[in-house]
Specification:
Oligomer: heterodimer
Structural class of chain A: alpha+beta
Number of strands of chain B: 0
Largest interface: A-B, 65 and 65 residues
Distance between the termini of chain B: 53 Å
Largest sheet of chain B: none
Shape of chain A: elongated
Structural class of chain B: mainly alpha
Shape of chain B: elongated
Chain lengths: 257, 339
């Protein structure tokens, strides 16, 4: 359902199983980078206080320490964090992004070192113009460092098994009396529409009452167009209950005893 | 095929959760706790079950969320199953660098020759340009301290050295500035390999022009000894380091440009990736040393430090560096080839 909004990278395993990564957009990557740069600046400002204190001992040594620290931290921040956090920095964590091997394999330290060293080329002439242009043109949204290192940056949405709890509260589903119509419903309703109905029920409490009523009205009408259940059981049924029954039938959720 | 999703999920869920727990364990703390053989077999078994469930669900189910969840499990498991062991490049790798660096340089010797040719052409061009047209000096070497008359500069530097320490209170800072600036230049030289080597070639040529112009300027002014004493101590390491960074850049450019058979660009890049990292690490190490020498030795002239000492040091250092590049790691390489 989300494939139209994001570029995907499809990986096929030797066993013939396919899985898909959602590639991060250049904009989200730029925001993550901006966060990381701000963190580096903040850390260096804090270190500046320490360096000021060190100047009481030796101005020359303090300045040398600061210059070296700044350079090491500027490059090392990305390399070290991506090694320790499996392809993530603080900025990438905040935006649920992750560096990933292009073939779905485990990231190697050499890949992380190289992709971060090549930031120097990506940042030319200013503000990551070259890297940004490369990411926009590349079918895998790769900047130059990613191309050389064989990596991509992917979105890592929080994925968990669906919680069926709230649907199991549907003690009695009158549609169960019509197994033929239920089978027809399962046949005609596409997966996207079924998922939409399920998510609408799951998030009902997050919606404004008016918007909720309008949404369930539209869903109920859509579902009624697929399969018509007898009027005697649907006449006094609210739109939301209609959708709930349909979802229950679609997903075969077991009812509480 | 109609699938009772709820039944399917409830039946298979324990395996999925067990696999996810093992994955989490691997991802969180793989270096601390390793799987024994039984765990590895169990992991492999669960991976295959989850992959099979994903295939089943992909062809028959209506529920994208469960499919996405299984996809994410298979994706994470695939990386663990098929990727090489993850190691942080700490002490072991640093020791390996001592031999891996010259090995990588020798492996791509033909490219090093090309680097020398480009840099040498730049030197000849810079030297000739300055010799033929002295007014081109500001263009050829746009650095304020090099624009004046060499003899006047030498007299001034030696007079200062006779009175005081010219680097008093600033040696460490200057050294740190040199290390970071030169390392940045080296990395940029390598990184510009992504412009199919064109950017690297331009930088190498330009650096050659500057060095050639400076050398001719001082030689024509009769200050060859000062020049050798000034440049050799740090230049005998710094210039080779920049050339080796250029070697990395041109290696990258060549890999992007030429197919070498039927291999894809990804495969070709994968083959040189380790060499590029080793070259960068080696070059950075050389530049740290060069920064220290330039600040603590090169800036001191006679009468503080006799030129003969500085020149001898530079020559010995250059010979040592060449010997290191030619000889180091040869035994290991033969052993690896035999294996």
């Amino acid at each position: 359902m989300m494939s139209s909004r994001y570029n995907n990278l499809v990986v096929q395993t030797p066993e013939g199983v396919q899985f898909t990564y959602q590639l991060a957009s250049p904009v989200s990557r730029f925001i993550a980078l901006a966060v990381d740069i701000m963190i580096i600046w903040t850390a260096m400002s804090l270190m500046g206080v320490l360096v000021t204190l060190m100047q009481w001992v030796s101005y020359d040594f303090a300045m040398a320490f600061y210059i070296l620290l700044y350079s090491v931290f500027n490059i090392g921040y990305f390399i070290l964090l991506e090694m320790l956090w499996r392809g993530q920095t603080i900025g990438k964590r905040m935006l649920s992004l992750r560096v990933q091997d292009m073939h779905g394999l485990k990231l190697q330290p050499a890949q992380l070192v190289l992709r971060n060293l090549l930031r120097f080329a990506d940042s030319l002439p200013v503000l990551y113009f070259l890297g940004g242009a490369s990411a926009l043109i590349s079918p895998r949204s790769q900047r130059l460092g990613d191309i050389a290192a064989g990596t991509v940056v992917v979105r890592m949405p929080h994925l968990a098994l669906p919680d069926w709890g709230e649907l199991m509260e549907n003690q009695f589903n009158s549609f169960r009396q019509y197994p033929r119509l239920e089978a027809l419903l399962r046949q005609r309703v596409p997966p996207e529409a079924a998922e939409l109905a399920l998510q609408s029920l799951r998030r009902r409490d997050e919606m404004e009452p008016l918007a909720r009523a309008r949404l369930f009205r539209e869903l109920a009408v859509h579902l009624q167009q697929q399969v018509k259940f007898p009027i005697e059981i649907t006449a006094s049924m609210s739109d939301e209950q209609y959708v709930r029954n349909c979802v229950d039938s679609l997903y075969q959720v077991a009812r509480k005893a | 095929m109609i699938l009772d999703l709820q039944k399917f999920v409830s039946e298979r869920r324990p395996d999925w959760e067990a696999f996810e727990a093992m994955l989490q364990h691997l991802e969180d703390d793989a270096r601390q706790h390793r799987f024994d053989v039984a765990d590895v077999q169990r992991f492999h078994y669960l991976y295959e079950r989850v992959a099979a469930d994903l295939t089943k669900l992909s062809t028959s189910a209506v529920e994208p969320q469960t499919r996405n969840y299984l996809e994410s499990l298979v994706a994470r498991g695939f990386g663990e199953m098929h990727g090489n062991a993850r190691r942080l490049p700490l002490t072991g790798s640093l020791l390996q660098l001592v031999t891996a660096f010259p090995q990588a340089v020798r492996r791509h010797f033909a490219i090093l020759l090309m680097v020398l040719a480009i840099f040498g052409s730049g030197m000849v061009f810079g030297g000739l340009a300055l010799a033929l047209d002295e007014t081109a000096k500001p263009v050829l070497m746009p650095f304020p301290h090099l624009l004046g008359d060499p003899s006047e500069r030498v007299a001034e530097e030696e007079a200062t050295a006779a009175k005081e320490d010219p680097m008093e209170g600033g040696k460490s800072t200057f050294s740190a500035q040199l290390m970071t600036y030169n390392t940045k230049v080296a990395i940029v030289t390598l990184a510009l390999g992504m412009t199919f080597g064109i950017g690297t070639g331009i930088l190498l040529f330009y650096n050659g022009v500057i060095i050639g112009a400076v050398m001719v300027d001082y030689v024509l002014a009769g200050e060859s000894v000062f020049l050798a004493g000034w440049l050799l101590p740090h230049g005998s390491v710094e210039i080779p380091a920049i050339l080796l960074a250029g070697q990395g850049g041109l290696l990258l450019g060549r890999t992007l440009l030429f197919a070498h058979g039927r291999r894809s660009m990804g495969q070709r890049l994968q083959e040189i990736r380790a060499d590029l990292v080793v070259l960068t690490a080696g070059v950075a190490s050389l530049l740290i040393w060069a920064g220290i020498i330039e600040s603590f030795m090169s800036q001191y002239h006679e009468p503080i430090l006799p030129y003969v000492v500085k020149i001898s040091f530079g020559v010995i250092q250059l010979v040592g560096l060449i010997a290191y590049m030619v000889l180091a790691g040869r035994g290991n390489l033969k052993q690896e080839q035999l294996k």
